């Protein structure tokens, strides 16, 4: 029995498999790593946190970066279905990011929507706590 059957994806065998995947798709992984390095190299030149709009845009941008890195990792471990889920999330965040950058009315609606979701979640928690006490 190999150690993948015992430990699953955290097994040592997965790191051997990962190297094989990266070697097989080297040109794609090389491109993805170069894009990631370019983003990380230039991220400090971006000026965020002057306004709430900047904070939202910065937060969405960070979500896009981490999602991109997550897709690279998932694909390198041979998990394309899981990578697709994260990629869809990345695309959604990118659309929202672009809308927030280009349309001040959209960003105001986005803030209201986010605040409503937080309020609604808090309301549900409080109602649940009332029921159990």
The main pleated sheet reads as:
none
From N to C, what is the helix and strand string? HHHHHH
Work out the strand percent: under 5%
> Separation of termini?
51 Å
Radius of gyration: 20 Å
Number of strands: 0
Summarize model confidence as the mean pLDDT: 89
Task: Give the helix proportion (percent range).
Answer: over 70%
Oligomeric grouping of the chains:
single chain
Global shape: flat
List unreliable stretches of 5+ residues: none
Instruction: Please report the number of helical segments.
Output: 6
- Class from secondary-structure proportions: mainly alpha
Provide a descriptive summary of the structure in words:
This protein is an all-alpha fold. It is 84% helix and 0% strand. It contains six helices and no strands. The longest helix is centred in the last third of the chain and has 29 residues, at 104-132. The mean pLDDT is 89.
């Amino acid at each position: 029995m190999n150690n993948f059957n015992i430990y699953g994806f955290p097994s040592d065998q997965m790191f051997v498999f990962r190297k094989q995947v990266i070697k097989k798709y080297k040109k794609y992984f090389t491109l993805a790593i170069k894009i990631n390095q370019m983003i990380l190299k230039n991220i400090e030149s971006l000026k965020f946190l002057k306004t709430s709009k900047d904070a939202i845009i910065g937060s969405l941008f960070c979500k896009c970066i981490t999602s991109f890195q997550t897709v690279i990792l998932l694909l390198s471990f041979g998990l394309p279905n899981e990578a697709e889920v994260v990629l869809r999330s990345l695309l959604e965040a990118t659309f929202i990011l672009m809308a927030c950058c280009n349309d001040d009315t959209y960003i105001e609606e986005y803030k209201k929507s986010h605040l409503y979701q937080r309020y609604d979640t808090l309301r549900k928690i409080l109602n649940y706590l009332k029921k159990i006490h």
